[in-house]
Design a protein that fits this description.
mainly alpha
Length: 98
């Protein structure tokens, strides 16, 4: 292992963002097509707090939020990669007073 902090490569960020986007789309489609099996109203049957379509919709929203975060991270990393080294601010270290 190296002692310094390693950054994710841009291709890995793009791949993770793409996977989140595909997962969000699939979950949204599944939440639309997932319907309850039994639609007959029974007075004795208790409704669940969360149904399968609602759960899939929440997971789809989570996937879309991760896609937005990944796209922002990707834009920042591409901007940072295109900035020349002489334009980047050097890190300043504090000197100890004697």
């Amino acid at each position: 292992m190296t002692s310094h902090r390693q950054r994710w490569p841009i291709w890995k960020i793009a791949a993770a963002t793409l996977v989140c986007l595909i997962a969000a789309i699939v979950l949204f489609v599944l939440s639309v097509h997932a319907a309850p099996q039994d639609t007959s109203p029974d007075a004795a049957r208790q409704e669940p707090l969360i149904t399968l379509p609602t759960f899939l919709l929440m997971l789809g929203m989570l996937g879309s939020m991760l896609t937005v975060l990944g796209a922002g991270w990707l834009a920042y990393r591409i901007k940072d990669a295109r900035t020349p080294a002489w334009e980047k601010r050097p890190r300043r270290t504090r000197r100890k007073r004697r």
